[in-house]
Amino acid sequence: MAVRKRLLLIAVFAVAAAVMLTPGVAFANYSIHGSYTMSTDACAGCHRAHTAASSITWTKTDLTEGSALLLGTSTSIDDFCYTCHGTAMLGADTNVFDGVFEADDGIGSDDTLNAFGEDLNGGGFNPAMFPTQHYPNNTTWVAYGGGTTGTDGIFSTGGTQVVIGCSVCHDVHGSSNYRLLKDVVNGVAVGGYDGTVDPVEPTPTPWVISAEPGYPTSGWLLHEPGAAQVALYTPDYTNPRYAKAPGVDATKGISGWCASCHTQYVNTTSDYDANDGFGYVTRHRHPTNVPLTNYLGARSLIVTDNVLPLAHDSSADYATQDSTDWIDCLTCHVAHGSNALMTGYAAVADSTDPLPDSSYGVTPGDGLGSVPPGDGNALLRSNNRGVCEACHNK
Hints:
Elements: H1 2-20, E1 57-59, E2 65-67, H2 77-85, E3 94-95, E4 100-101, E5 132-133, E6 139-141, E7 162-164, H3 166-169, E8 184-185, E9 188-189, E10 193-194, E11 203-204, H4 227-230, H5 253-258, E12 269-273, E13 280-284, E14 290-291, E15 326-327, H6 329-332, E16 337-338, H7 386-392
Antiparallel strand pairs: 1-2, 3-4, 5-16, 6-7, 8-9, 10-11, 12-13, 14-15
Helix pairs in contact: 1-2
């Protein structure tokens, strides 16, 4: 951690003056991250038009690289993001590196929102705290279940390597989606704007929305300062307030968005070799974007001492789990990093010969292994298969 902080010092000092002049709380899709006025000073918080020292580039539409014109000397977009969203940084209250909220008090009148030191909904990227992460810092990775057959996400079959970091999933300048989630990921449209009716003020077409109080469920406007949209909006970074897809479209929502990389996971079955010893066979998956009523049995599917987040209709019912709520990717998994432990049968090296604790992470017995083709704890919300027991209550 000390090494990372030293690497960031130059960039931090470079942007300190800019970020200290910005509001203490910067909402996603507003302030420094989009919805700018014509006289905005936010651009200068990150960019220099003629004297940028950072080597970070961006990919143009013709696939050539150009300078991102970023302030400071960061060499990766992730380190640049950590100058505000890192440990003890002043630019943002959301410390995504350590996975905690760092405001002095809550936002708005609801004291349960964003209390100081509370865990962020998505976990974090500090490897000492979150051994399994969604591979930030421009590392090379494969998306399990990727490609037309799923083999793009399997190492043993030469899966397609992708570089992943903050800007792979998030658009720093804003998007139609919740939490700056990009409108195009892996070449797949998962949100955007329809300018056929009004080219000056295109209509948002989000795939991912929120059940936070006052969230603009029709999507974030483009080319608009945003004051009207955030006037009643209270972001909640520490309590999951997930919403069903716009229009209750089962092909969209966060599950449809994740499927832009994990392409096979939108289907309940597909055929491929998952590198688990069983070869090329039909693979079956837990359904997503389905209500609990699909599996309502003789007793409750909700264990009240370990409630998993579901997707709700609105902010009015976010705290009440019922049979109409949806199961989606974020019901079982976190987006950034998890510290859940995998032990016993949840840590098996060879699925054809399941021996407890035969798959390990860094050190044998550390509980960081998982059933192939998993990696670490597969970003699960609770130890072993607690996410299964929370609903199925066996």
